[in-house]
Amino acid sequence: MKTLIYENSLKEEWDSFVSNAVNSHFFFKRDYLEYHSDRFSDFSLLIYNEKDKLVAIFPANLSGFTLFSHQGLTFGGFLIDENMGILDYLSLFDSLRTFLKKNQIKKMVYKCIPFIYYSINSQIEEYTLFKNGASLIARDLSATIDLTSSFSFKNRRRRGIKKSKKLGLIVSESQDYSNYWGLLSETLNEVYGVNPVHTLEEIKYLHSKFKNNIRLFICEDGEELLGGVVVYENINCVHIQYIAASTKGKRDGALDLIFNELIMNIFSEKQYFDFGISTEKSGMYLNEGLISQKEGFGARPVICSTYELNLD
User: Distance (Å, rounded) from C-alpha 302 to C-alpha 140?
Assistant: First the structure.
């Protein structure tokens, strides 16, 4: 196999492969990866077979002598096509190890792509890491609804939805990221003492590049903003992040109404509705209140694993 380090001339080939991969996510496309290129030293790879056909790509960055897949993303790892079998994957991984050693890279930190982002059933990734002697260093816990299976809202969530509807609150899609980022920043600072990972300028830029994938939904009482969420929409899976509500929004069930609308109507045809992780400290701390809220909508645990592999 032949391995190439990504360069700008390969952008079209890279993005095309992302679109057709069985574990695709729009944030693997170059316009997303490169918005924070000033913070990460890109070391993304393209792997070709003996017939010079592109068979896998590997979004990654380099820090010192350690390769990460990718520090600027929630998860990473190999993107593959539907023809990749286990023996091919093992050979692919061997090729990666050989290439990294030749480039004096001593360690790899590999964040697995959760199964909910695969269009076909596959756990090929974690088996290969295990077989190569990788060590599990983190296991975060997300919460996901399988929209194709039976699920139900718990009483507390149903009461919140009923209350918000009775008060006449309205859920809609919005383009006003500036207004929402004000509420989001205020909420995060008040509760956690932090700012959003993306600045307002960054999220507006990313939305301009991925209008069909990055979407903002808000709840209002008249013209008063009560709450909102940012949706990352993929082919089979919808991921929720940047959740916030004002004091009044929390009291009046604004978020319950938003999630009800997204789950039962707007994204009801998707396979998975993912609320994101409820863990910190590499999975050792579980936010019990947060996971309980997500389970209240019928979500169930999905693990997100990170491995470390020494290459010496």
Answer: 8
pLDDT in tens, 18-77: 999 999 999 999 999 998 888 889 999 999 998 999 999 999 999 999 999 988 898 989
Rg of the chain on CA atoms, in Å: 21
The CATH homologous superfamily of the domain defined by 149-270: Gcn5-related N-acetyltransferase (GNAT) (3.40.630.30)
What is the reported pLDDT for 39?
A: 85
Residue 121 in this model has a pLDDT that exceeds 80: no
**Spatial distance between the Cα atoms of 275 and 286, rounded to a whole number of angstroms:** 14
* Long-range Cβ pairs for the range 58-62 (8 Å, 24+): 58/96, 59/28, 59/33, 62/105
CATH 3.40.630.30 domain position(s) in the chain:
2-139+305-310, 149-270
Check if CATH label 1.20.59.10 holds for domain 2-139+305-310. Answer: no
Report CA-CA distances (Å) from 272 to 109, 197, 205, 234, 239: 27, 24, 26, 10, 8
Yes or no: say if 1 and 78 are a contact pair by the CB < 8 Å rule: no
- Between CA 79 and CA 76 the distance in angstroms is 8
Region 229-251 average pLDDT = 96
Distances 166 to 27, 223, 257 between C-alpha atoms, Å: 38, 17, 11
Q: How far apart are the first and last CA of the chain?
A: 21
pLDDT interval class at 93 (50, 70, 90): very high
